[in-house]
Write a structure and sequence with these properties.
It is rod-shaped, with a radius of gyration of 48 Å. It is α+β, with helices and mostly antiparallel strands and 285 residues long. Among the domains are: 35 residues, no CATH class; 159 residues, Protein Transport Mog1p, Chain A (3-Layer(aba) Sandwich). The chain is built from six helices and nine strands; from the N terminus they run ααααβββββαββββα. Strands 3-4-5-9-8-7-6 form a seven-stranded antiparallel beta sheet, with helices on both faces. The longest helix is centred in the first third of the chain and has 29 residues. Keywords: Membrane, Transmembrane, Transmembrane helix. This is DUF1795 domain-containing protein. It comes from Streptosporangium amethystogenes subsp. fukuiense.
Length: 285
């Protein structure tokens, strides 16, 4: 009798079971490769970036996108190369951008404004004298003020100014040293004395800035066909720099003309300056 040949060992020779195991091994290898590829892709760009959401963007970014954009964090962090002078934060946020340079024009304008405010806090009498000194010397004579409707002669050595430094006044004259007179038109007033007192208090605070201010004269006045009231103040200062100052405010009305206000100021206060102020007021026509 012939013996039936024995079947080959499946582990030693290829057979039906051996081919099946080979296919299973191939599928497992493909699955492992796909899984490794997904992990590598996740390492290239993190999906949990709060600035990107679920969107996965390629890295490095395309040329159309600026590499130093700060709209998102760079991933992975850039490793500084030799010679790079960058802070550690540049690995995430890119190359630092220099701050804008300040505009000298704006700074210069701010300094001028501050300087104006500081100067404006001083005694305005100095500004009045400065205006008179900066105006070209006109021939001596009479000042005509068409806005206020008056004219007045100037004492010897006085000059007419161009623009009064106090708002509302329409003409100014003085000796360019310590005495000044300003004139402006006014509105009719029922109580001339009360109006003169209010104007005296107003310009006393604006022009004198005295530590101690007192009324030295409060009387009625007549100039030509006009009548009115005059109020004079004297200011004293506690410091040793400012000498006493004198202020005279006159409100004139009547004579068929528009009322006017005359303000005379002198620093230091002396009889000569007071007399020159009274001369100008008495010459109004």
């Amino acid at each position: 009798m012939h013996e039936r040949p024995r079947r080959s060992d499946p582990l030693g020779e290829p057979g039906r079971d051996g081919g099946r195991r080979s296919r299973r091994a191939g599928k497992a290898a493909q699955k492992a490769a796909r899984k490794a590829a997904r992990k590598a892709e996740e390492r290239e760009w993190p999906s949990g970036d709060p600035d990107l959401g679920d969107e996965r963007r390629p890295w490095p970014p395309p040329e159309s996108e600026p590499s130093d954009s700060r709209s998102h964090l760079t991933w992975p962090p850039r490793i500084p190369e030799p010679g790079d002078d960058l802070p550690p934060s540049a690995r995430w946020y890119g190359t630092p951008i220099a701050p804008p340079q300040p505009r000298p024009g704006r700074l210069r304008g701010l300094l001028l404004v501050l300087l104006t405010l500081v100067v404006g806090g001083g005694v305005i009498a100095g500004a009045v004298v400065l205006v008179l000194r900066s105006v070209p010397d006109p021939p001596p004579g009479r000042v005509t003020d068409p806005v206020a409707g008056v004219s007045y002669r100037l004492p010897e050595g006085w000059l007419a100014g161009a623009v009064p430094p106090v708002t509302g006044f329409t003409s100014i004259a003085g000796d360019g040293v310590n005495t000044t007179v300003m004139v402006m038109p006014a509105e009719p007033a029922a109580d001339v004395r009360a109006t003169a007192a209010e104007l005296g208090d107003l310009y006393g605070r604006l022009l004198l800035h005295g530590d101690k201010v007192k009324v030295v004269d409060d009387t009625e006045i007549a100039v030509g066909a006009r009548t009115g009231h005059a109020r004079s103040l004297r200011a004293e200062y506690l410091d040793i720099v400012n000498r006493p100052a004198y202020l005279r405010v006159v409100f004139l009305t009547g004579g068929g003309r528009r009322p006017v206000v005359v303000v005379g100021m002198a620093q230091p206060d002396d009889p000569v300056s007071r007399a020159e102020i009274d001369t100008v007021i008495a010459g109004l026509s």
